[in-house]
Fold each of these.
Amino acid sequence: MSETVTKKLMLYFPKCECEKPIIYHLVKDHNLVVNVFRAKVTPEEEGFLVLDVTGTEEQIQSGIDFVKTFNVTVNFTGKGVARDEAKCTHCGYCVPYCPTGALNITDGQTRQVAYDESKCIECLACVRVCPFGACTSAF
């Protein structure tokens, strides 16, 4: 029996694909457990979906292959939050608002703000508080 794993994915739906029951088929036909973290998918618009899929490597790959048949782009980082280094002034204003420490100051000498994407839970606090727009969301 294959080992069960979980992968985080971000799916981008062009407006022509937003009304299809894709998640239903991932669960029913590919035996995946799906946990949706964030979604913005509406008819007549493009959409984004951040989710965890749990199953065997084979089931997950089969599900991804299925999703790609719908002109849906799959991003394997699975993050709807991005940080633009060029816009970041390293003011540190975001750091106390980040509940997981994904944004932190690792070197007290340089005071540079570091971003550990693996710790990000996409609470969007950084997006709301950054005075320079360095943190953005696909949503």
Amino acid sequence: MIELTPAQRRDLRARAHHLNPVVTIAGNGLAPAVVAEIERSLQAHELIKVRVQGAEREQRDALMQELCATLGAAPVQHIGNILVVWRERREEAKPSAPATQKPAAKAATAKSAAAFAAAARRAALAKASAESRRSPARAPASRSRGPGSGTRGR
């Protein structure tokens, strides 16, 4: 369980004020599914509120201690049936990509490049279409020669 200084706890309480509870603990207590959901929420948000239903104050205190010990989190606040818990995000180990997956990554890049080029063509066509609608239609320049033009002496 992580210990917080009073200043850290005060800052976290202020940050948690506007949050809504993301997990509800009901009659089954800390079931494995509930612990897994709280773990996911802590990884995503770091600071969460948990609602506890149907438990007395002493039970909620014990639940808070058990929850923080299980997840390696810090208890921030316990007001009524709301528990506020904080834990810093854990770094996720990224699996190393084998050499066989590199061509797939290039294919994805090529696909993205092709999609980018297609989007650019569509944008250019739309721009040209909009410009042609804005400007009045002009007749093509005629090639007839007026007086004084042409060849001399023939």
